[in-house]
């Protein structure tokens, strides 16, 4: 074989290999191509080997062509390999593709419980008048729930509260404990810890041994209020609660105070406001009276003040307490208090 023949063979081989390489469509064919040209028994390898048959002094041209062919095919192979790998990856991604334009599953978002909302609203209304929000224990000592509120043992006023006693009393030196029947016990707890002036509202859960019906639950929520300072009068009580009714139920509200009895206030009162629905004409919400009773209140009883070490000749105060579920029932026209704690989403979702 002459060096010329060998050179042209090599060029031909290179051209053929290149055109085959260009036509290849996948990696397994590429591998076959590599073996068939560049492999140990491949066409190029063998051709290069056969150059040994050319006399050394004539070999130069063919040798150069051989090197050139080998380099060209190796580079082209590398490029094609990369190309086909990328194409394979792209095809795989296409096949396993996630359609991110599909709408996702909606995340269920909760909302505030109607009691929570009304508690926040009520506390915020009193906050505008300088009242601080504090909380107290739900399992309470008899002393705070009753005695310090001027309800001694065997006092007939105890009959107003259907009480849930707690068996375990050891932790408090045998002093009887109960699930608090109202938030009023915080009156004494606050005053024992603070010097006047005191101005607080106390939201919290209360419990009573109660047969449930549309307006009674054994568990409910109250907000208690207490203001004590020098020179506080019934006029302050009326002004504060009047303002409160207007913040919560509208600027046109009128309020009415009538005598009522609570052992820890003197005088005691219940406050009603004119019906926000019929404006006092009479409707279902106000049971055709034109008035809706919303809270109990009064001037703090001197015995309560003295009981916590306040001088009742120097200090006076007022207190009030109201039911939050009742307040929410009025606002939203809810007819059964039992709905609040039945965990029925059809009800709860409406707020
Ligand atoms: N604690 C009373 C109850 O649960 C409500 C109440 C009435 C609270 C008059 C007061 C008040 O502070 O002055 O029925």
Total beta strand runs: 10
Total of helices: 11
* Major sheet attributes: 7 strands, mixed
Q: What value does the average pLDDT take?
A: 92
Q: Give the CATH level 1 class of the largest domain.
A: Alpha Beta
Order of helices and strands: HHHHHEEHEEHEEHEEEHEHH
Strand content: 15-25%
Task: Describe the protein in words.
The chain is an alpha+beta fold. The chain has a 7-stranded mixed beta sheet with strand order 1-5-6-10-9-8-7, with helices on both faces. Strands 2-4-3 form a 3-stranded antiparallel beta sheet. A hairpin with a 4-residue loop joins strand 7 and strand 8. Helix 1 runs antiparallel to helix 3, helix 3 runs antiparallel to helix 4 and helix 5 crosses helix 8. The longest helix has 37 residues. The site of 3,4-dihydroxyphenylalanine has 11 residues, from strand 9 and strand 10.
Topology:
Layout: H1 3-23, H2 27-37, H3 43-50, H4 59-95, H5 114-127, E1 132-133, E2 139-141, H6 142-145, E3 164-166, E4 177-179, H7 185-193, E5 198-207, E6 219-230, H8 234-249, E7 255-260, E8 265-274, E9 291-300, H9 302-307, E10 315-323, H10 324-332, H11 345-348
Parallel strand pairs: 1-5
Antiparallel strand pairs: 2-4, 3-4, 5-6, 6-10, 7-8, 8-9, 9-10
The protein binds 3,4-dihydroxyphenylalanine.
3,4-dihydroxyphenylalanine binds next to strand 9 and strand 10.
Structure in a nutshell:
The chain has 351 residues and is α+β, with helices and mostly antiparallel strands. It has helices spanning 3-23, 27-37, 43-50, 59-95, 114-127, 142-145, 185-193, 234-249, 302-307, 324-332, 345-348, and strands spanning 132-133, 139-141, 164-166, 177-179, 198-207, 219-230, 255-260, 265-274, 291-300, 315-323.
């Amino acid at each position: 074989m002459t060096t010329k023949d060998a050179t042209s063979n090599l060029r031909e081989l290179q051209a053929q290999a290149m055109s085959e390489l260009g036509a290849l469509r996948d990696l397994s064919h590429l591998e076959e191509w590599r073996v068939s040209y560049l492999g140990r028994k491949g066409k190029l390898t063998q051709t290069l080997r056969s150059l040994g048959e050319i006399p050394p002094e004539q070999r130069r041209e063919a040798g150069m062509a051989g090197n050139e062919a080998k380099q060209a095919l190796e580079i082209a192979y590398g490029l094609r390999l990369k190309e086909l790998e990328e194409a394979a990856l792209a095809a795989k991604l296409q096949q396993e593709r996630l359609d991110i334009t599909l709408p996702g599953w909606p995340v269920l978002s909760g909302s505030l419980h109607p009691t929570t909302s009304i508690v926040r609203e009520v506390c915020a209304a009193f906050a505008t008048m300088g009242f601080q929000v504090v909380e107290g224990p739900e399992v309470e000592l008899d002393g705070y729930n009753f005695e310090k509120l001027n309800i001694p043992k065997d006092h007939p006023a105890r009959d107003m509260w259907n009480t849930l006693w707690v068996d375990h009393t050891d932790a408090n030196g045998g002093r009887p404990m109960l699930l608090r029947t109202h938030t009023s016990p915080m009156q004494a707890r606050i005053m024992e810890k603070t010097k006047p002036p005191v101005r607080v509202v106390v939201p919290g859960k209360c419990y009573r041994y109660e047969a449930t019906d549309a307006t009674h639950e054994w568990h409910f929520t109250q907000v208690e209020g207490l203001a004590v300072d020098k020179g506080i009068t019934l006029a302050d009580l009326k002004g504060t609660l009047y303002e409160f009714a207007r913040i919560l139920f509208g600027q046109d509200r009128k309020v009415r105070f009538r005598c009522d009895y609570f052992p820890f206030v003197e005088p005691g009162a219940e406050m009603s406001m004119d019906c926000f629905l019929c404006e006092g004409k009479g409707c279902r919400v106000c049971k055709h009276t034109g008035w809706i009773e919303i809270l109990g209140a009064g001037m703090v009883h001197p015995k309560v003040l003295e009981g916590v070490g306040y001088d009742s000749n120097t200090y006076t105060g007022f207190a009030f307490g109201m039911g939050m579920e009742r307040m929410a029932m009025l606002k939203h026209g809810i007819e059964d208090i039992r709905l609040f704690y039945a965990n029925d989403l059809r009800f709860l979702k409406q707020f």
